[in-house]
TrEMBL record:
Domain of life of the native organism: Bacteria
Cofactor annotation: [4Fe-4S] cluster
GO biological process, alphabetically ordered: tRNA wobble base 5-methoxycarbonylmethyl-2-thiouridinylation
Name by which UniProt lists this protein: Coproporphyrinogen III oxidase
Species annotation: Aneurinibacillus soli
Length: 352
């Protein structure tokens, strides 16, 4: 299976009707919101990024950072026309864009598909109306449901949803209910970005006044683990957890507080593997005369071992026997299987 990559083009905060309390796309992308891409910018960026693509990768041109369908129609047409040239030439497989749920309608979809758009990501952030109101999103959960229903009338388009746990008014229980509601909408993929306090946002003022307390990294890991589980059980891929730790975000004074971590997804995976190993211990009677083989996929090894190997080391000590980690490329991801002379079993994240 070919790995998917995006040729990213940013339209920071452009097309958005207002400022949400958490958003400063200029800080996140390192580009000023007033600057519009020119035809030369678009072509040069696409060509430059195409030169780095390998033959075993599938590629989409992706417009991120703003509400694409809220841009002036002439600007949309210019951007899409150039991107479509690369689609028609067979150099990329399609076009991806992000937008607001209340900026989707049948006539908008007809326009997008005429230029070869293949993926649309909706910035839902939450499916709780109180959280959305406090974030000043300007749309409700009903807008999300309506947009999903419209997009689903176009079967060639992949649908993605983006969630931001930890916004003002959010709780772990609300975030889990949002994930459960999102799973019922059956998107093709999702992203989970725990909320950060970015300089220059209204959230910065709320944070400095004590009105808003951001999640710690540990809290965000726990919340995201709980949010991920219903999506896993529904078979919905989560293609990103945690905002990408770019040079712009790492710049001093950009992220003022919140759970920014370069390996956030791995932390979430470690949390769930820790739960699996604990569940496994409850199902096993330790056999001091036998070696316990624990089988996992190689891609899961770092998460199973945990920071500095402490998770696996603690498990092995508590089992009081010679536990061996076996790496098997044919083994399913997010699953542990065990066997010894007296016990055998399998558990996966979906069992939690």
């Amino acid at each position: 299976m070919k790995r998917h990559v995006n040729i990213a083009l940013f339209v920071p905060h452009q097309g958005c009707p207002k400022d949400c309390v958490f958003c400063n796309q200029a800080r996140i992308t390192g580009q000023k919101r007033e600057r519009q891409l020119t035809e030369e910018d678009v072509r040069q960026s696409i060509e430059t990024q195409l030169a780095t693509i390998r033959s075993d990768q599938t590629v989409e041109i992706a417009f991120f950072g703003g509400s694409f369908t809220g841009l002036p129609r002439g600007y949309q047409t210019m951007l899409l026309s150039i991107a479509h040239e690369f689609v028609a030439a067979g150099k990329v497989s399609g076009i991806r864009l992000s937008t607001r749920p209340d900026y989707i309608a049948p006539h908008i979809m007809d326009f997008l598909l005429s230029y070869g758009v293949t993926s649309i990501e909706l910035g839902c952030q939450s499916l709780d109306d109180e959280v959305l109101a406090r974030a000043k999103r300007g749309h409700t959960a009903a807008h999300v449901e309506r947009a999903v229903a419209i997009i689903r009338q176009y079967p060639t388009v992949q649908l993605g949803l983006q969630l931001l746990p930890g916004l003002p008014g959010d709780t772990r229980a609300i975030s889990v209910r949002t994930a459960q509601a999102a799973a019922m909408l059956r998107p093709d993929f999702m992203r989970i970005y725990p909320a950060l306090v970015i300089a220059g946002t209204e959230l910065e003022g709320m944070y400095r006044s004590g009105e808003y307390v951001p999640l710690t990294v540990d809290e965000a890991v726990q919340w995201t683990a709980e949010v991920w589980l219903p999506l896993l059980k529904a078979g919905i891929p989560v293609i990103r957890m945690g905002l990408h730790s770019s040079d712009d975000l790492r710049q001093a004074g950009t992220v003022l507080a919140g759970p920014l971590h370069p390996s956030f997804r791995q932390l979430v995976e470690t949390e769930l593997f820790s739960r699996l190993l604990k569940r496994m211990m409850e199902a096993i009677v330790p056999d001091t005369q036998a070696c316990l083989n624990v089988r996992i996929h190689p891609a899961d090894e770092t998460a199973v071992r945990g920071p500095k190997g402490m998770v696996w080391r603690t498990f092995a000590q508590q089992m009081r026997d010679e536990s061996k980690l076996v790496l098997d490329r044919d083994h399913p991801r997010y699953t542990v299987s065990w066997e010894s002379s007296s016990t055998v079993g399998t558990l996966s994240f979906t069992d939690l």
